[in-house]
Amino acid sequence: LNWHSSQIMLKYLYNVQDKQFALAEEYLELETKRIHELQRFLVPIVDWYINYSFTKEKFILSHIDSIKMMTWIHKDLSTIKKIMSNKQSVEVFKQFEEHKAISELNIQSAYRALRRIQKVYAIPASDMAVGKYKDRIIGDPMDACECNVMSKYSVEEYDTYGAIEWALQTYNKWLMDRPKCVDIDKLYYYIRLASMSTGFNFENLSNFSNLNHFGNIDYITRYFSLIENELNIRDINAESTDIYHIYDNFEQLSRNKNFRNLCRTGKSARPLTCESKCRYQTKNSPYWILMPFKEEDISINPSIKLYHDIIYDEEIELITKMASIDVSKLLDAHYVPRYHVDDIKICFTLKLTDAAFYFNGKISLVDEQRLGQLKWFSESSDPMLFGKLNERIECITEYSTKTAEGYQVVNYGLGGHFSEHVDAFTDGPKSNGNRLVTILFYMTDVPEDGYTVFPNINFVAHCRKGTALVWQNLYLNNGSVNSGTIHGGCPVIKGNKWIMTKGLYEEGQHLTYNWRDNKIITIV
Ligand SMILES: O=C(O)CCC(=O)C(=O)O
Ligand SMILES: [Fe+2]
Questions:
Q1: Which 8-state DSSP code applies to residue 142?
Q2: Which residues contact 372 (CB under 8 A, 6 or more apart)?
Q3: Terminal-residue alpha carbon distance, the chain
Q4: Nearest-angstrom CA–CA distance, 241 and 260
Q5: Is the Cβ atom of 489 under 6 angstroms away from ligand 1?
Q6: Low-confidence ranges of the chain (pLDDT < 50)
Q7: Cα–Cα distance, 518 to 433 (Å, whole number)
């Protein structure tokens, strides 16, 4: 189980932990009771025995006394054994499983997710280690052991800059109380290993390469401060320089630069034009005149619109509950869901799973591309709810939902994200045509990060509960894929991001081109 992949999973993990703690407490109680009982029984007997042992010889000579002794021994020893082997606590102990919930691998992926947040948002390790991002508190300070793990995993992933940055944090924290979890020798090794590829002036450090660093703290301190100086020269810690560029230089992933920049600033850089309008839209429907929807133009090419208050709190509550249901079921056998039995069946057939990323028609389960938990819902899992949503979608998009795919509900977790992609298929024609329109519902508020970013048009959408972003993936004259629709979900730093998406297909729509003729999909 990929525990950190969503908030629902993490919630489940915390519940597993609660259960194990409760077991440990129960065990302690039973054991204490048992020990006390044994003590109560044993102490007077032992006292008695010590007193009488001086007269053992006499006992043996007296036959009456011997019988007494034999009876006592027989009775007492069996009682002692009975108390000692009280099965109750043993039974509880058997249920306690330290590794039931979490594995080393889980932890490693979680640390990797943390490092991803650090890289995308360009958070210096010195800030992250105190739980800070810009002027925000994003968590509790990390201790030397935690920083050490960051360094260790960075080394294992050939993430050289991470290795050094976190080794320095580890060292600074280690100096205070020298916890055992830090092997200073290894730390030194991490740094040496990573030094050259980060552009360090290694010559300066070579004097230290043969140092007998065991027990010579002065030497190591000099070594570490040298590295720190090196980093300072590169303005890693200087407030005035933009650390983001340093990360960019190290990462050298220029194609991601704008994406990350938009994730960081959270600000759209698109110019407002005179066509940019917002309106109360009724589409001349008498129904919608009573409750017009709030439509905001975002972009003409590609066509992107934002709808406010388009999905309601009660609907959101129902959907997120339905998506979490099998997790709750796992946790608590006595869980009584409030849905109709038929709905449950459908909920269970479509299980919550790790969100996958499709590339060239192949499924890839790599955290670096996408991390979240996903559940598909077909209309039949709640005809009332999804029927209404379909109607609403048809009204705002003026496209049919008859040929559309189901609803995809996603919950993000620790560093949950979705790297840049197009929603349209690019690996060849599909029977229902391509994904023409995407509707992305935001079902929670994520106040300060986790945006949806369209890097090619410099647009950033914030995750606001009840709004929906609607865009056209294809050009309407020939069905080629509009590269302006490249988008991704920035890693979530803090908060619970729930979204739901639906794709509408070309099939069944009134289009000016014949999509069945499109044998090759081009991205323009
Ligand atoms: O999480 C987001 O903001 C984007 C999600 C997305 O692009 C998708 O599910 O296709
Ligand atoms: Fe997408």
A1: P
A2: 5, 6, 354, 355, 410, 411, 412, 413, 416, 417, 418
A3: 39
A4: 17
A5: yes
A6: 206, 210-211, 214, 233-244, 330-350
A7: 9
Distance from the CA of 13 to the center of ligand 2, in angstroms? 28
Atom of ligand 1 nearest to the CA of 421: 7
Instruction: With beta carbons less than 8 A apart as the criterion, state whether 400 and 394 touch.
Output: yes
Residues 99-123 pLDDT 10s: 666 888 889 989 999 999 998 898 9
What is the C-alpha separation between 459 and 490, in angstroms, rounded?
A: 13
- SS3 state of residue 370: strand
Residues 222/226/231/232 CA torsion (nearest 10 deg): 90
Q: Is residue 259 within 6 Å of ligand 1 at its C-beta?
A: no
| Ligand 1, atom 5: closest residue by C-alpha | 489
User: What's the rounded Cα separation, in Å, for the pair 442 and 465?
Assistant: 5
User: What gap in Å lies between CA 450 and CA 489, rounded to an integer?
Assistant: 6
For tokens 């600033």, the residue is 265
For ligand 1, the distance from its centroid to the CA atom of residue 49, given in whole angstroms, is: 77
Atom of ligand 1 nearest to the CA of 452: 3
**Minimum CA distance residue for ligand 1 atom 9:** 501
Torsional class of 309: left (φ above 0), alpha (ψ -120 to 50), beta (otherwise): left
β-strand partners of 439: 470, 502
**What global pTM score does this model have?**
0.85
